[in-house]
Amino acid sequence: MTNLMDQVIEWLLNVTGLEGISIILLTTTLAIIQGILGVFPFATLIVLHITILGLTVGLMASWLVGSVAAIFVFTICRYFFYDWFNRRWGKRLERYEKWQHGMDKYGGWSIIFLRTIPVMPNNLISFMSALSPIKPSTYAWASIVGTLSHIWLFGIISSSIIMPDMNIKSLTMSYILFCFVLISIFIANNYKSFGKSQG
């Protein structure tokens, strides 16, 4: 499926004639399709961005595209197709009940975690969030931060393959600092609930 998707994307780039930063017009549409159907990994678009735009701009473009797609999919699920998604996906999402519980308890922080570490597909995160009582504003900021975290981590891991001669020390150290700040804010905001759960 990945090879087929690579061929489709290459064909679309040739047909549209898009190049440079303008490929965002194409990849945003593809990210929305991926966010709804999940027919190919989002990593395909990240690699495309990095290959065409370079590491830094490519990661930034991926962050923008991924955030827009996540918010778009959540919005259409929540406000336009809620009943349909609830009927079609409600039962399937039951196996992710523990994550749903975490989302109910920790709100946006669970979305940041789920978007950072791929324990479930991107589209299911959006569907599950749309069917939950989470506020749209909470979902939006959490998806933006979580998508940034995922793409940053992916950039560190994949750069050694895509750009083996590049020094990624600063990218790695800045990500560690970013995670430290996030964890510190999370603990500061939730330390009271930790005490209650232990009691």
UniProtKB/TrEMBL annotation:
It is a multi-pass membrane protein. The keyword GTP-binding does not apply. InterPro entries: TMEM64, VTT_dom. Its main location: membrane. It is found in: Cell membrane. Residues 40-154 form the VTT domain. GO terms for molecular function: transferase activity. The keyword Ligase does not apply. Pfam families: VTT_dom. It comes from the Bacteria. The chain crosses the membrane at residues 12-32, 39-57, 63-85, 106-127, 139-162, 174-191. GO terms for cellular component: plasma membrane. Keywords: Cell membrane, Membrane, Transferase, Transmembrane, Transmembrane helix. Belongs to the TVP38/TMEM64 family. PANTHER family: GOLGI APPARATUS MEMBRANE PROTEIN TVP38-RELATED (PTHR12677). This is TVP38/TMEM64 family membrane protein. It comes from Paenibacillus glacialis. The lineage of its organism: Bacteria, Bacillati, Bacillota, Bacilli, Bacillales.
